[in-house]
Amino acid sequence: MVHTSVLEMWQHFLDSIGDSGNLNKITYTSWYFCNDEESAHNLAELVKKGIKRGTASLFCLYEIDQEALPTEGSYSIVTDFHGVAQCIIRAKKITVLPFKDVDDTLAAIEGEGDSSLNYWQTTHRHFFTEELTVYGITFTEDLLVVFEEFDLVY
Questions:
Q1: Which residue in 127, 49, 37 sits closest to 84, CA to CA?
Q2: What is the CA 1 to chain-centroid distance, rounded?
Q3: Which stretches does DSSP call E strand in the chain?
């Protein structure tokens, strides 16, 4: 069930851009980062501060979960771990590439830790390995990553 704060934030956003009549025409998703309360909170805070301007996920999980990939121009309401709305982002660029091809620029856009490629690789290798364990899939650096660059819009 969607937390009321998500619906309220979406309405406030549409009002702020003078587009409240399009509430049912413009779509969005709502979700939180990672799969633990502390990470979800910390990463949402980095987005709100403008430090985190991108996120990475595994392509194969979109296929397994039968979810559509994010698209340029799509909106997402980032929530905390409990579903409470924190901010709204808009995807500006989607790049699908092997894990091993993520570079310094993309790592810096993600804005986590010290924003280095080494930090990005270490944390994401660990996170992706844990995610894949549930599906009985072994992580390799050839797995495709969906890298979403976004703008904070509200």
A1: 37
A2: 20
A3: 28-31, 54-58, 75-79, 85-98, 144-152
> What's the predicted TM-score (pTM) here?
0.91
Chain-centre distance for alpha carbon 7: 19
Which one-letter amino acid corresponds to residue 133? T
Cβ pair 110, 124 in contact under 8 A: no
- Tell me which CATH code domain 4-152 carries: 3.10.400.10
The domain ranges of the chain are 4-152
What does the pLDDT look like over 120-130, one tens digit per residue? 999 999 999 99
What is the pLDDT, as a whole number, of residue 73? 95
Q: Which residues lie below 8 Å from residue 91, measured CB to CB, with a gap of 6+?
A: 70, 71, 72, 73, 74, 75, 76, 148, 149, 150
Rounded to an integer, what distance in angstroms lies between the CA atom of residue 62 and that of residue 70? 10
